[in-house]
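I hope you will forgive my troubling you with a question about protein structure. You will find the record immediately after this paragraph.
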Amino acid sequence: MTNNEIDKAKSGKSHLDNFIKYLKERFDLREDSASEQEVAERVGRGVVFKGTNLWVLIFAIMIASLGLNVNSTAVIIGAMLISPLMGPLIGIGFSLGTNDFELLKNAMRNFLLMVSVSIVTSTLYFLISPITVAQSELLARTTPTTYDVLIALFGGLAGMVALTRKDRSFVVVAGVAIATALMPPLCTAGYGIATGQFRYFIGAFYLFFINSLFISLASYAIVALLHYQKKTQIDKEKEKRVRKIMYVVIVVTIVPSVILAYGIIQHTSFEENADRYVTSVFHYNDTMLLDYQKNYHYKNRQSEIVVRLVGEPLSQSAIDNARSQMENYGLKNTDLVIRQTDTKGESVDVTALQKSYSELLEEKNAQIARLQSRVASLSIPDTLSVSDISREAAQVVDNVASLSISKHITYSAEGVATDTLFYCFVEQKDSLAVDVDRLGEWLKVRIKANDLRVIINNE
């Protein structure tokens, strides 16, 4: 190697060393780090929930519950801005990283208090709220995935990094990041209890639990990265056992969320592939794509794509060719269902077709309304208690042994419903006469019926 080549190699190595040194200076967390004692005092103060912290938590939970209830993202964010949730979780991770078991006990107690107060507050809100429908913002917190874990992890990292700085201007912002992962699930858990929908409670509380776990884990990781001193020295074997337990808890907690995330990814991938497939393949001169439907099935059942076509019907060879292209779009375990409408060579009037669909929809809605009205007319009103009426009738008219009332619809010879009337079947006492006219007039007033027939059972 010549001297020139050696000089070039040294120069290249020098540039690389300078670049690495530059990166280390940029990403070094120790430069503006607060002292360990100062950080420990901050964490210790932050874990305590009483007085101001507790009341602010209650108000924040109320605001977040209201935001979830009315489906307002802005209101939920507003609740996060004042939420004091990060203290106990940061404290748990910090205490594990420094072997401060007294702080760990205090953080755990306050964590349980925080959870209890939050769930009770949100439950009370949803019990008195007139809006009981689960909105999209609320439903989004019932199915935990790996993405939620990542939000909690990065939020926890941001919170702990901000807490260990001399300049604490970013602590509030980091608290908002942590509240993003914690407040909505807690409020959703309260909704599940208030409405008796425990699957919502289980899903939301599981989301809250894994988020809490990974926020604490993030705090623990920053403490380890900064090499904070241990407050209590324990033997290496015991430390290994503690770490093993931590790893087991982490794995057991995260596995279900990974499975759920995989399912969501598969579903999203199917939707995207189906869109690409239909828009790319179904282009024909005399046949127009009307619409299509994607039905994804999570388990062993085949997913399917239902395509509706109008115009010249596709030949079997064209359909087979369309099916053969499905694998090219990642649709291996998917069935293709084609619904065709033959216009017999006539041009397709899209506007008329849309109008036809609208008219059909209106007709169906009108039919549903008629059927609902018919069901209502066939049902005897709740206020009509035949047992009460039979006792009252015995006091109004003599010789009534028993009676029954039913509601009927009369039809014309053309099969058209013409009227609704009540029938009252009366059994007399020992063949003694019943004043039919008096009973009929009284019943019309009693059950609010315009048309009523009284029939005497002589047997």
Q: What stands out?
A: The two ends are 127 Å apart (CA to CA).
